[in-house]
Amino acid sequence: MKTLILVAAFIATIAAPSAFAxxxxxxxxxxxxxxxxxxxxxxxxATASAKAGELLKEIxxxxxxxxxxxxxxxxxxxxxxxxxDASHIAESKDLGKQREYFAALSAGFFKLAKTVKLSSAPVxxxxxxxxKSYWLSETxxxxxxxxxxxxxxxxxxxxxx
Length: 161
What we know:
The chain is mainly alpha-helical.
């Protein structure tokens, strides 16, 4: 009986770091996305560019071996488009252009978030009726990245993931 308990404990210790690394990697992707969103909310093109560069690195270096088979398939299918959109934001210093690219990045991240559990916390899919575009948020509170202070609270929650 003691042997069985020790074997179970050993297996749990081996599996736990792998699951932790997987969750940490997914959370890093989502956190980097949120940092871009928050920079756009603050109309800060320089920070949005820098954070998009960090997201690009996260996307390119993600280890899909830690993902489930379905998650890895979805991530690999999205990886090139997400990289392209993040790269456009990183390369641009124009806030208007960054916001356009962010709309495309958000569409890709939503598709990814529907398949890959990026966070144990709720992810709010929010909509701007003026821009007719969506974004993901870590809070229920609307902070519109497409208009910043001009229309900070314009929008609504469309879905919770």
